[in-house]
Amino acid sequence: MKKHQKFIKIVTFLSLITLLGTSLFVPSVFGAPYSYDLTATDTVLDMGIGWNLGNTLEACGSWISGTSVSNYETAWGNPVTTKAMIDGVKAAGFKSIRIPVAWSNLMASDYTINADLLKRVKEVVDYCSSNDMYAIVNIHWDGGWFANFATNYDESMKKYTSVWTQISSYFKDYPKNLILESLNEEGCWDTIWNRWSGSTGEDKTRAYNILNSINQKFVDIVRASGGNNASRCLLIAGYSTDIDLTCDSCFKMPTDTIKDKLIISVHYYTPSTFTILTEDASWGKCATTWGTDAEINQVKTDFNKMKTKFADKGFPVIIGEYGTVTTNKELASVRRYITTVCKTAYDLGFCPMLWDSSEHYSRTEAKIKDTELAAFFYKYKDASRITIPTATPTMTTTPTVTPNVTPTSIIVYGDTNGDGSFNALDFAAVRLYLLGINNGPTYSEWKKASDVNGDGNVNSIDFALMKSKLLGLINKFPVEQ
After folding, report:
1. Residue 360 falls in the annotated catalytic set
2. Is 155 a catalytic residue?
């Protein structure tokens, strides 16, 4: 590269430092500082409260025409997701976003996912990352094909394996603010066993074992893909994501090759006569109000079941969905339900994630519609449930970043810690060095690998370039061009 070209690039990225707000003392880039490898418990604590990008990337149906991702994204009435929308969600007090995805929308007969869909999902995840937010990506309802596990297990597992192999490969080097979720609510097979049939024994065991095997396959696939997936936090769907069914002894958490990285997911729409029904149905009478002492205590009882069964044993809890319809409901009851569920979950150390198909958050105005709910959520904006060490001259301990594997003689630019790839751990190591907290990792070639702009030094320019690559703003470092 010619010297004047390199000078232009240096000036460009010095400007980028200002544009990105890249200070050595910003709280974080993705999640907590010095803690890019948080345990599952600390990750859930750090996730605060969450919001679902509902009825968007999981919209599906054979009636949807065209092959464009946006055709599906807008099919259920929501606009194309923009960064401004996600900025507004962060400003409203949410620190985490769940992104439901119907991967079958654009999938070949051999289960190959359309590249544009993968790219679009990453774009939305990037909107979260640029806001220092956690993002959850899953396989959502997806046309209901999960029911086929009951009748054609092998072919269904072939599809599931193919889908997660592709997703895992695509996101394996993504920073660990991304959490992958095994599936949505479809982890149940009522044709084999259901709670109303009264049957137990082999049928019940068979139904649960289908989900147990799916969740185990999910963990195995993601871990085998390597990169950050080797130790990324993973979200495991409970049976039908129902609290009582998930707390049943037939449900088993999968085994993992790494400790303290699994999270359990359940949803909460109890009582469904209030949260789901907008008019009377054959199975129940529509409730228009909610909030008696007994109803509030039911929330506490249900969530404490999850705490005892899972959180107290090292499997933290995410309430992946909760919420209520607003049609034919008393407004005060809607507020009471949402705030009660959110606060109860949060106070127990869970991450509650509001289901929203644009009923509560205006995507065009980028704000919560109900001012009282908006004020409630905003209280969580700067709340923190974990203690994060800060860089000060009085620090007595020295955080270290050590290689995960034996370094090779091949320099991978950006690979500060010598584990063979560039990721957020390398960014953390450079940050500590620039703060004067350590003298650099023990990897002998770390300075050469960290000098990603090629000026012979490791400085704030390299720091900004690394952040830019993590955010997907650049594909290559200047030394690679």
Report:
1. no
2. no
